[in-house]
Amino acid sequence: GVDRSSEDSGSRRDSSSDIFCDATKEGLLHFKQLHADKGKWKQMYAVLRGHYLCLYKDKKEGQAHASCQTIEEPLQISIKACLIDISYSDTKRKNVLRLTTSYCEYLFQAEDREDMLAWIRVIQESSNLDEEV
């Protein structure tokens, strides 16, 4: 871990419970891959870093991975140039967002509407990172 004590990271990192200092957002999400053989919902611990949404089995696995205690790679979804929107038709569940990449579609269920909108916002921002540069 690199100790970056620049001012901007301090303002964003006000919660000490965050595992990843470079994460834009993290939290529990229910996850399902559309059109997969067994499209079952699973609860995952999601961490958004740069252009990747990493999905861990739980927060503990995410912590172990962050401190390099596990070699198991998380499921990584590239959100570069992805489409993200609220899903109304794919599921009866509430607060579901749909993430469409060039080769796959995923559903994520957030804990509440506010959380869902926050995920949509940060994923949109991260998927367009390059355009600002």
Automatic annotation (TrEMBL):
<dbReference type="InterPro" id="IPR011993">
    <property type="entry name" value="PH-like_dom_sf"/>
</dbReference>
<dbReference type="Pfam" id="PF00169">
    <property type="entry name" value="PH"/>
</dbReference>
<dbReference type="InterPro" id="IPR001849">
    <property type="entry name" value="PH_domain"/>
</dbReference>
<feature type="domain" description="PH">
    <location>
        <begin position="22"/>
        <end position="128"/>
    </location>
</feature>
<dbReference type="InterPro" id="IPR001605">
    <property type="entry name" value="PH_dom-spectrin-type"/>
</dbReference>
<keyword id="KW-0963">Cytoplasm</keyword>
<protein>
    <submittedName>
        <fullName>Rho GTPase-activating protein 21</fullName>
    </submittedName>
</protein>
